From TrEMBL:
Native species: Acaulospora morrowiae
Superkingdom of this protein's organism: Eukaryota
Cellular component aspect of the GO annotation: plasma membrane
InterPro entries: Kch1/2 (IPR031606)
Single GO MF descriptor: potassium ion transmembrane transporter activity
The entry's keywords: Membrane, Transmembrane, Transmembrane helix
A matching Pfam family: KCH
The name this protein goes by in its record: 16198_t:CDS:1
Keyword hit for Transmembrane: yes
Ranges that cross the membrane: 29-47
Length: 48
C-alpha cells in the first residue's frame, strides 16, 4: 500500500535570481535569433 509522507515546504529564501541573469551582448543576440525563428515559424503557419 502507498504511504503518505510528510514533506517540508520548499523555501527559496537562499536562491539569488540575479546569479542566473546574463545580459551580455552575445546572449541578447542568441535570444534575438531564437525570437526571430519562432516569429518566422508562426508567420509561415498563419500564411499556410
Amino acid at each position: 500500500k502507498w504511504q503518505r509522507e510528510e514533506v517540508q515546504d520548499h523555501k527559496f529564501d537562499f536562491v539569488d535570481v540575479d546569479e542566473f541573469q546574463n545580459n551580455s551582448l552575445l546572449m541578447q543576440l542568441k535570444y534575438s535569433v531564437v525570437f526571430m525563428i519562432v516569429l518566422k515559424s508562426v508567420l509561415v503557419y498563419i500564411a499556410d
